[in-house]
Amino acid sequence: AAKKDGRNRARTFTRSMLIVLEQREMLRRSLRTALQEGEFFVEYQPLVSPAFEVLGFEALLRWRHPLIGNIPPSVFIPMAEKDGLMSEIGKWLLEQACRAAMSWPSHFTVAVNLSPAEFLHEGLTDRVAQTLDLVGLRPDRLELEITESVLLERTINNLDTLNTLNVLGVQISLDDFGTFYSSLSYLKNFPFDTIKIDQYFIKDLEHDEKGQTIVRSIIALAHGLGMHVTAEGVETEGQAIWLEKEGCDRLQGYFLGFPIPAEAIGEFLRKSPTALIGEFSGRRSWR
Ligand code: C2E
Ligand code: MG
Ligand code: MG
Ligand code: MG
């Protein structure tokens, strides 16, 4: 009986694996045409000062599959990377995001994520320069977010790329800081404007003294190196207050605002009483 069970289990397992594989194959096939079919859209999540002034938005890619519905970026972006589609999709997103930013108050920034394939793409710096030119967006209003995984390979060219972007005048953020290798040599060698502390460290902040020590240290480290700090994944008022007190420059997370479509930004700003303070006071610094 045990033998029979084992065989059955093996067969069941194989079949469900097959279904998963078939679904993945189906998704990959749809992904190839998703851009032409207009299935991608962009949501924007606010980046906010500790005084709750909106400072800008991060563009987040969304894919609405015609049959399945919304597929999370954590699922389709790695697929698109593997199939060599991400560079083309990223090009589309960059232009969308820059165009959207043109309709916002002129001190707002727009942050765009770059996956490894996009960052390593030879034409990246030209693409960024051309898009800014085409759309007419001031370079310092564009922020490019990369993760440390991007920097693992091709170190010398990476530095060239970052330096060229720096010369163009765009801002560069190190995303998801603390989750990957977090090699301090990256901070020493690469010209980042901002470190984004990963939401992993923010989640338990109020009850976790070790977590507090780590976040406090990252803030001090960044400021010591002349960089700004953004906290990701701020979900509670308590976290926001703690981060304000510790001198964090920018907050992002569901407590400050969910990702929303471009069309909803106007209303979001109207409902957010401090959203336009920076514009009226002409103040551009974050603190
Ligand atoms: P990320 O760049 O670190 O973006 C932050 C993610 O955290 C987003 O997930 C956002 O919706 C989510 N988030 C924001 N606030 C909170 C919060 O308070 N609590 C929690 N639990 N989550 C929060 P999303 O949109 O699913 O994106 C996941 C990742 O996919 C992004 O992480 C980024 O690495 C990648 N991604 C998204 N859009 C793009 C894109 O246009 N291009 C590239 N290359 N990657 C993208
Ligand atoms: Mg990001
Ligand atoms: Mg992040
Ligand atoms: Mg993250």
In brief, what are we looking at here?
The chain has 287 residues and is of the alpha/beta class. The protein is 48% helix and 19% strand.
Essential attributes:
alpha/beta, binds magnesium ion, Diguanylate cyclase (GGDEF)-like protein, ten-stranded mixed β-sheet, 10 strands, single chain, disordered C terminus, globular, binds ligand C2E, 287 residues
Describe the structure.
The structure is a single chain. With about 290 residues, the chain is an alpha/beta fold. The chain is about 50% helix and about 20% strand. The protein has twelve helices and ten strands. Strands 1, 2, 3, 4, 5, 6, 7, 8, 9 and 10 form a ten-stranded mixed beta sheet that branches. Strand 5, helix 6 and strand 6 form a beta-alpha-beta unit. Helix 3 (about 85-100) runs parallel beside helix 5 (about 125-135) and helix 5 (about 125-135) runs parallel beside helix 6. The longest helix has about 35 residues, at about 1-35. The model is unreliable at about 275-285 (pLDDT under 50). Bound molecules: ligand C2E and magnesium ion (3 copies). One magnesium ion binds next to loops. Ligand C2E binds near residues 60, 72, 90, 233 and 259. This is Diguanylate cyclase (GGDEF)-like protein. It comes from Sinorhizobium kostiense.
